[in-house]
Design goal:
single chain
């Protein structure tokens, strides 16, 4: 008899909540505490980082609604990695990190793309009638 596949537990929903909360905190920090600190280019980087951070926190929450399975696990992980790599590298660049940190940003973008494809595949499972 086949063993049931272990579920993800609660980590994706916990991670979605933490990602959303941190997006709000970092967005507010950039808008208020860094107002006179960042130059216009730094403010634009911070804004882009916080926008992608927040949208992908929502995507991570959407992944929690998908049926459990490989695609859901990939989507959840890819969105989390994308937030760290994409938004994290932009936050760091805005704060004056060396320019080579910008080479990390596209890796986060690829993770976001993988996450969206996997989320689409996971949600597609919901459209199929049970057999």
């Amino acid at each position: 008899m086949r063993q049931p596949v272990p579920t993800l537990g609660h980590w994706p929903s916990w991670l979605a909540g933490m990602a959303g909360a941190s997006a709000v905190v970092l967005g507010a920090f950039g808008a208020h505490a860094l107002r006179g600190v960042l130059d216009p280019a730094g403010r634009e980087l911070w804004h882009t980082a916080s926008q992608y951070h927040f949208w992908h926190a929502l995507a991570l929450a959407a992944a929690c609604l998908a049926p459990d399975g490989r695609a859901r696990r990939i989507a959840s992980g890819a969105f989390a990695v994308g937030i760290v790599l994409f938004s994290g590298s932009l936050y760091a660049l805005a704060l004056g990190s060396p320019r080579w940190c910008g080479a990390i940003t596209p890796l986060g973008g690829v993770a976001f793309i993988v996450g969206w494809i996997a989320l689409g595949m996971a949600l597609h499972r919901m459209d199929k009638p049970a057999s």
